[in-house]
Write a structure and sequence with these properties.
Jelly Rolls, ten-stranded mixed beta sheet, about 20% helix, alpha+beta, Rossmann fold, about 625 residues, single chain
Amino acid sequence: MAGPVAPKDPVKKRPAIYLMYDKQIFANPFRDGSGVCFLFMDDGRMPAMARMVGGVEDENILKMLGPTDEFRKLVYGIGVSMINEKGINCEFILQMYGKKDPYNSGTTIKAELTSDGTEYLIPLSDVEWTGDDDRIGQIRFHFKESGFPASVMVKLYLNDGYTAPDFVPADPVDISSDRYKELIAQSLVSMGNFERLKKAIDKAKRGESVKMAFIGGSITQGAGATPINAECYAYKTFKAFDDLFSAKHNTEYVKAGVGGTPSEFGIVRFDRDILRGGYFRDGSKSDEPDREPDIAVVEFAVNDEGDETKGKCFEGLIRRYLMMKNKPAVIVIFSVFIDDYNLQERLSPIGYHYDLPMVSAKNAVTDQFYMSKEQGRIITKDQYFYDRYHPTNLGHTIMADCIINMIKKADEAATALKIADGKPFEAMIKGVLTPVRKGLEEYKMPETALMSDHFEYVSLLTIGEDSASIPGGICIANGANGGDGFGNTWSVSNFNVGDFNEKDPASQYAERDFDQFGTMQFADNRRHISGSNPMSLDVECKLLMVVTLDSAAPDEGNVDIFVDGELVKTVNPREIGWTHCNAMIVFDNDVKAKHSVKFAMHEGDEDKKFTILCFGIR
């Protein structure tokens, strides 16, 4: 009788690199009613995850986790599993981006997964390759239904000759521990002047509605949070504030994060995205769409590398808030990437100049990342980061706790000062209370800007006739004029779309407020398909900005921007390589003047596509 036959190539004996281990994802609602979770693997994300989760330090192996041909040399097969309590199966997809058409000409690797956590192996030798693969693109999990969490595991089994570190799961994080509280305390960069913040807290305690507004990039949008609407730091901060301070739980919430965009885009969309009705905790909508916020949280510390002004637009956004009639409290939070990168050194001087409360997730977590458990590490990079750029649910919780810790300190400090005033021992601790007194003095704007005051008020100009009703926007289809209330006026005339006469349905989407569905940014845009007639307009102003749509599509062309007949800029929408809004300055002058502006397809690109979304003007 023959004995059992061993497999010729036992996978369990192959070394494996973990990309995901017990990773929490969410079946986000898709437009066809199904659920989907996107996990982008390009732009260095897969090697970052291999380093973060799998502990890989071999640079030669990490370099192979990008180009498809190198990936195939390294990887024998992909092991993947999924589990969820609803018992719903899913389809796993690893998409390679193509050379000719990034999103359509590359190979798509698929596997059907059951919901019980069974691991499925996809040998790369079984894959039918298209022959046009360029690089690793994205991982997707597709579900027939939406609205529930799942846990996934993805690992790469290696070919002979390659090794991987042994995988050791991290211990759970105890957010009630003293060590965690110490970690959060380290996030405080500066209390600044918190007089406005204390007024907002007291307003909430009296039962009055307090509006909290959050503006930033993809982290504020909620990227990495599952689900994106309920686990993002913005919602968690809003909810905690409402629980701690609101006597009637009537705090109003506005979330206005847009992925991959800096404060340069934030100032253009400011009125549209901030001066609108938010939502109360019970899901009801505010009936005061134009009410200014009481507390404003600003998060651009990892997005503003794309700000061509290198801080001037960030300062303009801060000034825009501080100059509001409602006198909102402004809080700056510095988020962080997996490689410890952020722009805290560039942006914090602006915060200090305006004496703002500032907190830093980087200050809280990065140093302890490099400690052992015995040395005091409480959270690993794998536990904090969802991918190379975005926090996990736990990472979002830490960001929210950093903000709330600062808000509680402001309230406690004011209370301590009130108790001490008039007491005999007050003089003894005068030195301790002096910073508190200073922080509670009536806030006064600095007399001068640190870098520039050119961007403190930018009007949004929409360009389609259907967009005349966009809140916070001014349609220029038939000309327009306006001003900022501080003596700066502008006007637009002779607007002509030329051959930019179509609409682009593929604009960037972003989840706002409590929504799990993305809202299209500037749906009433103007798109060039073919022709040589430029878009043109005459303006009288100091500052003009344009927002265009970047794309990876091969049929996108370049656009030349002319001011008074002179070429000032050529825009390549494929430079970044993914679909998102791109704000840029056309001109920025000290004195208002009349100019003729033209957007023309670059010579040779007359039959290619290009989308213009809107303008900003001052």
